[in-house]
């Protein structure tokens, strides 16, 4: 049985790509295209992993991850970005969070699954 994975990306195509890749290998996947909706509906203890885009309107991925981490201290987190400079400039503001999982877009299916599986093997 796979893990329960949460994907948050305002780009519907990217979110669906991630979902299909993960479901193909047996994970259960829930997608949110609006981080605000996720914050309203999030239930602690349900998800093994959060994969969130960094650059989204209103709430960026760092802020979202910070808020989710407060609600669920055990959830693993991966950040996805196509903007390396953006990531480097903002990560200093969120040094309290341990983001040791970065998904650089665009990414192919095999690389994506390898990153996710490695993160799922790490302690919560």
Automatic annotation (TrEMBL):
Q: Which InterPro entries match?
A: Bact_response_regulator, CheY-like_superfamily, Sig_transdc_resp-reg_receiver
Name the Gene Ontology biological process terms. Answer: phosphorelay signal transduction system
Task: Extract the Pfam families matched here.
Answer: Response_reg
Give start and end of each Response regulatory domain: 4-120
Presence of keyword ATP-binding: no
| Keywords in alphabetical order | Phosphoprotein
In Swiss-Prot or TrEMBL terms, this protein is called: Transcriptional regulatory protein ZraR
What is this organism's lineage?
Archaea, Nitrososphaerota, Nitrososphaeria, Nitrososphaerales, Nitrososphaeraceae
